[in-house]
Amino acid sequence: MQDLITKALSFVAPRAALDRMVNQAKLRNFGRFDSALTSEKRGISRGVSGGEDTAGTRERFALIRAARDLADNFPPVRSLLLKFATYVSGRIAYQARTGNREADTAIERYWQKWCNDCDFLGRHNFTTLLQLAVTAMLRDGDCGFIIVRDGEDLKLQSVEADRIGSPYDRTDTDKYIGGINVDDYGRPISYTIFTRTINNQYISPVDIVAKEFIHLFDAARLDEYRGRSAFATALNATRDLQEAIKAEVQAIKYASYQSGVITTESGAADAGDYFARGNSNDQGQVARLQSLDPGTVNYLSAGEKMEMFKSDRPTGAFGEFIRLVQAHICMAVGLPYGFAFDADKSGPMARMEAAMAERTFLRWRGLLEGQFLNRIKNVILLDAASRGLIQDSEFLLDGRWCWPAKVSIDYGREANADIALWKAGLKTAGQIYSDMGEDYEEALRARAKEANMIKELGQEFDIQPNRISDSVPITAIDTIFDESKNEAPPLIESIGIGGTDALSGILASLGRGELSAEQVAVILRVVFGMDEDNANKIINAEPAAPAAQDAAPPAFAEEIKPTKLLALRDDFGRITAFEQTK
Q: Residue 107's closest CA among 441, 372, 366, 364?
C-alpha cells in the first residue's frame, strides 16, 4: 500500500515511485520472523513492558471486577471454580515422619486440632480456608493470610486481593508495587493491608511485615509481584458468551409469545374482520386482537392470509459457539474441555484428559505446598514445641502432605494395574495409598485392627474368620486341630491348600525360621494326615537308610541317585503319605 509521499512522487516520477515501493518492501521483509513484521492486515502488538508497571493496579482490579461478576452470575465459571478447588484441595491431611511413632501421633493430633480452630474470625476450618484460597487465586489472581497471635495460639486472618493495596491507589513506584513494599533489591519487606467497609470503602491501611504475611499467587512472569486472574485471557470471550446467551433467551421468549401473523393487501386490519373486532382506542381506531381463546373459529377476508409464527432459535451454530468459548475458559485455567464440561468421552481419550487434569492439579498442589502449607506447618509446629505442647526433635518438621485421590475414570482398571506393579516391586504400597488420598501407616493399622476383630469374632461364635470376611484368609496355622473340641482333622481340600505346593511353602517357612519344627510337625500330621515318622523325616531332611543288598558285579553297579519324595494319594486324590525314592 502506498504512502502519501509515494503517491505524490508517482505523478511526477513514476519510476522513482516504483523504486521507492520496492525498497520499502525489502525493508519490511528484512528479518528472521514473519511475526515480527508489521502489517495492516492485523492489529499492532502491545509494547514490551515488565511484569509490573504504573498501570498494573488499574488493570488488576479491572480483571478482578470482571472475574467476580462472572463467578457470581455465569454458571460455567462458577462450576469451574468449584471443581478446581474440590479436586486440588478437597481433603488434605498431614503425615508426620520424625521416626518416632509416638511423636508422629502427637504431632498429627496437634495439627488436626489446630486445623479445626485455625481461623482468627472463627468461621472456617483449615480445609475450607485452603479451598477458598484456591478459588481466590484463580478468580482474583492472589490472596493472603496474616499470621496473628490470639492469646497463646497462632491463627490465620484471611485477606482478599482487593485489600492488598487499594484499588484507588495510583502511587505505584519502584519501592511500592500494588500494596507490596520492597527493598533496594526488590525483596518484599511488608504488605499494606486495607480495611474494606460495608460500603466498599478502603480505609485504615496497616503495614504487615513479610514474615507475618503469607502471599499466595500464581505468577505468569518472573518479575511479577502480584498475580492476575487466571481467566484474564478468556474474560472478554466469556462476557460475550454471557451476553449472547441473554440475548438468545430474549429472542426465544419473544418468539414463544407470538402465535401467528395476519397479512393483508393494504397492511391494515379490515374493520369487519374478526381479528379487528374489539374496543376502539382514543383515536377511534379499532384495536386488533392479540390473544385468542382455545377452540376459536376465525374468518378471514379476501386477500388476507394467516401464518403461524415460526422460529428456529437457537440454532446448532450457537451451540458450537458456546462450546468454543467454554473451551477457551478451560484453556485459560489449564484444564481439558472434556474434563470440565463434556463427560461423554470414554476410553483412551477420556483417560488422557483425566491425566492432563491431574497434572494441572499436581502443579497447583506444589504451589500451595511451597507458598503456604509448609510455611504455616513449620511455624505452628515450632511454636507448639517451644511451648512444650509437642516433643521437640531434630526431625520435628519432617513429614508429607496427603492430598485427595487422583482423578480416575476407571478405578477397577487402575487398581488392577497398581496391584500388578506392587507385586512386580515397581510400586510401593505407600504410593498406592497416597494415590487414593490415604495415610499408608494409618490404613495398615486400621486393617490390622479389623483383622484382629474378625478373628476375635470368629473365636467368639466358633466359626472360621473367612466366613465373616475374605479379607482375613484362612491359613494352615488357623486350622490346627484343637483336641479339646474333639473335631476331626480337616482335609487339604477343605482349607484350600494345593498339595505339594503348600508343602513346599511350609518347608520354605521352616527354612527361613518363620515356623518352628514343632509347628511344622503338627501341620503335617493334622493337615496332611501324615504319621509322626514321615513328618519327622521331612522336617529333619534325613534320607532313609538304604536297604542291605548283595554285592553285585562292578559291571552292574548303579550310580547313587539323590533321594526324592513321592506323594502317595488315596482313591480320592488326597495325600496320605510321602515315600522316599531314588
A: 441
Q: Provide Rg for the chain, Cα atoms.
A: 41
Question: For residue 543, what pLDDT is reported?
Answer: 44
Closest among 146, 185, 179, 147 to 163, alpha carbons compared: 179
The residues, any chain, with a CB within 8 Å of residue 264's CB and separated by 6 or more, are 270, 301, 303, 304
Residues sharing a CB contact under 8 Å with residue 391, sequence separation 6 or more, in sequence order: 100, 103, 106, 385
What is the number of H-type helices and E-type strands within the chain?
Answer: 18, 13
| Distance between CA atoms of residues 116 and 126, nearest Å | 6
Question: Does the pLDDT of residue 545 top 70, yes or no?
Answer: no
Res. 424: pLDDT tops 70: yes
User: Using the 8-state DSSP alphabet, how is residue 280 labeled?
Assistant: B
Grid coordinates representing 221 are 512472569
Look at the block and give the residue holding cell 463427560.
343
235: Cα separation from own chain's centroid? 24
Mean pLDDT of the region 496-515: 69
**Burial level of 234, CB count in 10 A (0-12/13-18/19+)?**
buried
- How many other C-beta atoms are found inside a 10 Å radius of the C-beta of residue 106? 17
* Residues 6+ away with beta carbon under 8 Å from 258: 309, 311
C-alpha torsion sign, points 350, 352, 354, 360? negative
Burial class (CB in 10 A: 0-12, 13-18, 19+), 430: middle
Written as nine digits, the cell of 79 is 462450576
Q: What is the largest CA-CA distance in the chain?
A: 147
What is the distance between the alpha carbons of residues 212 and 147, in angstroms, rounded to a whole number? 5
What confidence category does residue 274 fall into, taking pLDDT thresholds of 50, 70 and 90? Answer: very low
Give pLDDT, residue 566. Answer: 59
Q: Residue for cell digits 511353602? A: 505
Q: What are phi and psi of 206, to 5 degrees?
A: -135, 135
**pLDDT mean over 8-14:** 82
Cα dist from 219 to 229, 363, 415, 445, whole Å: 10, 13, 36, 42
Kindly list the domain boundaries of the chain, sorted by start residue. 1-28, 474-548+558-581
User: Cis omega (within 30 of 0) on the bond before 314?
Assistant: yes
